Amino acid sequence: MIQKNYIFLISAIAALGGLLFGFDTAVISGTTPFIKPYFNLDDIWLGWTVSSLLGGCIIGVISAGKPSDVFGRKKTLMAAAILFAISAVGSALAHKLSFFIGYRIIGGFGVGIASMLSPMYISEVSPAASRGRLVSYNQLAIVIGILLAFVSNALLVDSGENNWRWMLAVMGLPAILFFFFLFFAPESPRWLVQKGNSEKAFSILERINGTDIAKEELLTIEESIKEEEDSGTFREVFSGHMRPILLIGVFLSVFSQITGINSIMYYAPVIFQSIGAGASNAVMQTAIIGGGNLIFTFVAISLIDRLGRKPLLIGGVTGMIISLTSIAIAFYFKKFEGYLILILILTYIASFSASLGPVTWVLVSEIFPNKLRSKAMSVSIVSLWMANFLLILVFPVILNRFGGAAAFLIFDIMCVILLLFTIFKVPETRGKSLEELERILVKKHKV
């Protein structure tokens, strides 16, 4: 019981990075009806202002790998917490668009680092039997962060002409809490073994798994690392034997975005305003979406280690296809009566949150070998943020020039492609240690 409580505690601390990731990326949605007139933004500039954080994410992911390998996962996450705090205060106080975008980019650095290192850290400290559930806590934290952003936006929407400033400023508090909680988390035992500190790694593994399992786990990690005479390089990440595994990571990362989730999360108030909702009502409906996102993430956590990653993906993506088809039809025939669009979007969110959202982060943190994990994950997650950046940049233009039917039909087609890829290419990783997965997924591709 003590061991379970300990692993839950350190996973929860690491997952606070996911909470900040979710909050920072979603909080902008509530500000869009107010920063657009304040900074006099057209559709293109609105897209750039919202997506500027994602440009910072790309840089953050690229730059996170080396510090995490040199200084450790824990210290690099602490640096991310500091960046979150700077972004919150700076963007809230900005009076010029250039400063606003600059501080959002700084926040993006933090999001990029957390989006890579939080699931990696949890994956590296988790027992194989519960790794899927524990890494899913990171996704749970992300959606809690999104929900908190939506709820705080709804509470602050009527707070006066500076409402959008307060919406952004409140993120400073959880950023400071994340920084101080990290002092109570241990370093990744796999990173410690790579740095020659097996004794300290064993003490952490023992507290997580008990003495007997810790001995076996340490021996497995040491043997895995002994086989790796040099540190992994990006050339090896893109080598022939790694290419099939990298393709899975990149494909899932990209399609987790271009199937539409963050276009809805970031621009939900704009979508609801486009069908006649007022600004305050649009922000309130967005908060409801955040609640649905949270509820169905619990479904994923309960099923991912019992049902498996692949069946969960197939079922969830099928639900997304049905939902997006219905939304596109509703927009095409202009069927906006009552809460129809809200209900259909909630169905889409439920399908995503119970499958593609958490499963993507779990698989990307599992499938790569020890020495290449940080670099291969960075390639996958950079691909994720680049796809997200481009989509968020152009979505206001697509919505306003081509209409909601075209926008949601594009997402629908992407889901169909993802479903076929999942059926034929995505492996099942449930219940296997990271070292076992390395043998199964990577070594079989070596000539």
Helix and strand topology:
Layout: H1 2-38, H2 43-70, H3 73-93, H4 97-125, H5 131-156, H6 163-169, H7 172-181, H8 189-194, H9 198-209, H10 211-226, H11 234-237, H12 243-258, H13 261-274, H14 279-303, H15 309-332, H16 340-353, H17 356-366, H18 373-402, H19 404-425, H20 434-441
Helix content: over 70%
Q: What is the typical, i.e. mean, pLDDT?
A: 84
- Secondary-structure element string: HHHHHHHHHHHHHHHHHHHH
**Count of distinct structural domains:** 1
What is CATH's topology name?
Growth Hormone, Chain: A
Structural class determined from secondary elements: mainly alpha
Task: Using brief descriptors, characterize the structure shown.
447 residues, mainly alpha, Growth Hormone, Chain: A, 20 helices, 81% helix, globular
